[in-house]
Every structure is written in C-alpha cells, then in structure tokens.
Amino acid sequence: MFYQLLKYVLLGPLLRLMFRPRVEGLEHVPEEGAAIVAGNHLSFADHFLMPAILRRRITFLAKAEYFTGPGLRGRLTAAFFRSAGQIPVDRSGREAGQAAIREGLGVLGKGELLGIYPEGTRSHDGRLYKGKVGVAAMALRAGVPVIPCAMIGTFEAQPPGQKFPSPRRIRIRFGEPLDFSRHAGLADEKAVLRAVTDEIMTAVLALSGQEYVDRYAAEVKAEEDQRRKESRRSGVRRGN
C-alpha cells in the first residue's frame, strides 16, 4: 500500500518533475512473470527513478547499511527503503554473495521483477565497471530473462558527495531481454557465469555509452582512496 502511495502520490510525481525522464524501450520489460532488470549505477537516485517509471513493482537488493542506522532517523530510513521495495543485503563477509543470491531468487520465485546493479556499488567516476557474477547465477538458476538498463544523466544530477540531486533531464534506456536458456544447468560453472555477466555488461554499455573499465569498481575506488591518503601524508611531511 505504501509503495503505491510513494510511487503515485509522494515520491513519483516529485521525481518526474525534477528529472523529466525520457524513457526508451519500456516495451522490453515484460508485463508479467519473473525477470531481472540489470543496470548501471551512477547515483543514489537510481533506486527510486526506475520504480517511478516502471508500470510494475520492482524489488532491488540494497546494502544493509541503509536499514541499520541508529536512532529515529535510522528507523525512518529503514522503513522508507522497505516501503520502496528494497531488500537489505549484507555485503560483508564470505557469505555475502550467496545471501544476495538467495534473496534475489526468492523475489524471482514469486514471479516478480528484480532490480540488480551488477557493478555491486555506485560508480565513483561515471564509468562502467566490471560486473559481479551474482546476476548470472540468479538468471541461470531461476531461468529468467535479463533486461539490460542504462541510467543516463543521474551521475551529473547527483555525483558522489552531493547530498541532494540537482534538477536536470535524465534518460532511462531498456534493451531487449537477454535469453540465457542455452546455459541451463550450468549455474555452477565459473566460466559460464563470467561469460553471461560480461554479455549483460556489454548490453548495458551499448545502451549507456559509458567508458568501460574491466575491473571491479570497489577495487579501483579503494586504490584511489589509498593514493589520496598517501598524497596527503606526503604533503604533511613536506610541510613539516
């Protein structure tokens, strides 16, 4: 009930007013049945823009930190994310990937739409990064199509570090569904999972036009953060 209230009364109209989204390829999203929508991830606003423009309800796997904040603010944030169709997933520890897959398969098992960002985190520089194979594992185990999706303009509307998005027109593109039935029964084959994931990311890249980086975003960001820390320490030492 609250999901519908957010979409049609509270949040949806505001997002449409701020971003005036131009949507392409919406006919590729099935009107019923389980499917995965796999897209790039450029902004915090992505979580809410796609549900606002889709006719069907879509459930996203979201990082658990959104649901565990302290105090009243934390409880309100958690309630908001759950009402907006988000499922908390702990991304730390060895079992994190399997936990996400289990949650995703649960959504698909009910014949619903599942939203996934294969990069695993928001792009910190607007480029498209290597996808993690969880999306392939879910697609093969559930036997469902994957609809590639590209958000265009959301990085500029809300780059990292900016608390609130700036009004600007954005574009959302959906590609033709990708059918991986030829790989049925091979969900435990690492080479197959990698190939399927790369095919999905290639389709997203064709829609988004981003620069592609064949590395995981979290690794690149961690290296850049470390270089910045070392540069600051070097500057301090030179200043002494």
Automatic annotation (TrEMBL):
<feature type="domain" description="Phospholipid/glycerol acyltransferase">
    <location>
        <begin position="35"/>
        <end position="154"/>
    </location>
</feature>
<dbReference type="GO" id="GO:0003841">
    <property type="term" value="F:1-acylglycerol-3-phosphate O-acyltransferase activity"/>
</dbReference>
<dbReference type="GO" id="GO:0005886">
    <property type="term" value="C:plasma membrane"/>
</dbReference>
<feature type="region of interest" description="Disordered">
    <location>
        <begin position="220"/>
        <end position="240"/>
    </location>
</feature>
<dbReference type="InterPro" id="IPR002123">
    <property type="entry name" value="Plipid/glycerol_acylTrfase"/>
</dbReference>
<dbReference type="Pfam" id="PF01553">
    <property type="entry name" value="Acyltransferase"/>
</dbReference>
<dbReference type="GO" id="GO:0006654">
    <property type="term" value="P:phosphatidic acid biosynthetic process"/>
</dbReference>
<keyword id="KW-0012">Acyltransferase</keyword>
<feature type="compositionally biased region" description="Basic residues">
    <location>
        <begin position="229"/>
        <end position="240"/>
    </location>
</feature>
<protein>
    <submittedName>
        <fullName>1-acyl-sn-glycerol-3-phosphate acyltransferase</fullName>
    </submittedName>
</protein>
<keyword id="KW-0808">Transferase</keyword>
